[in-house]
Amino acid sequence: MGAVIQIRERIPNKRALFDIGIGGPIASLILSMILWIIGISLSELVPLNQQSNLESVTFFGESAFTYLSNQFYFGGFDSSQMDVNIHPFARAAWVGLLITAINLLPFGQLDGGHIIYSIFGESYRKWIYWLYIAFLFLALVNFTWLIWGFIIFYFIKIEHPYIPDHKDGIGNIRKFLGLGILLSLLIIFVPKPIMIGSQLNQPSLLEYIWNQIQFF
């Protein structure tokens, strides 16, 4: 599924770096999506009020991909009244997609960091910290992302270490492929990964701030 890559041998150039970074996310994305589709076909739609002891039930957050695929397969439903009781295959796929999404974050030694640095080179250092700050704002939606921000800053690092250019660059095909896999992050990213039933009606920090603004 990809990971924070530690390689003992020196990477010769950005083309080699790109090839190292792209393989894991592509394989993980394809396999997880296929497994999700299989799992959803084996899942069932149930009313929320039929969930016993709702406050102790674990709810898996939705990405654009999982939400749209659920709505398509089950013919459209009100997620405030109904929920998908997902098959273990779909649950495993959900974990795979979440790991892939985290791994595609464009920072440091994550595969997303390898890919974005290979595409944009040294110029990306001018704006990568702004992208990191934007990422931290996700903590307004779910506190989990502030923890990940800490992990990235202190352990994974924000910037990628210097790697020399290949004499012919990485090529347009690699650029398009890299941008495509990075954009896939938008459809598989889960803003609120896991919630317990008792948390469902609790507003996020962003919702709380918005409610206070409306109050005034």
UniProtKB/TrEMBL annotation:
Q: Does the keyword Oxidoreductase apply?
A: no
Species source reads Leptospira ryugenii
**Record protein name field:** Peptidase M50 domain-containing protein
* Membrane topology, record value: Multi-pass membrane protein
The Peptidase M50 domain sits at 2-126
Q: Does the keyword DNA-binding apply?
A: no
| Record PANTHER family | ZINC METALLOPROTEASE EGY1, ZINC METALLOPROTEASE EGY1, CHLOROPLASTIC-RELATED
Report keywords, A-Z.
Answer: Hydrolase, Membrane, Protease, Transit peptide, Transmembrane, Transmembrane helix
Q: Which residues cross the membrane?
A: 16-39, 59-77, 89-107, 127-156, 176-196
Q: Where in the cell is it found?
A: Membrane
Q: Which BP terms in the Gene Ontology apply to this protein?
A: proteolysis
Query: Could you name the Gene Ontology cellular component terms for this entry?
Result: membrane
Q: Which Pfam families match?
A: Peptidase_M50 (PF02163)
Q: Which family does it belong to?
A: Belongs to the peptidase M50B family.
Stored InterPro entries:
EGY1-like, Peptidase_M50
- GO molecular-function terms, A-Z: peptidase activity
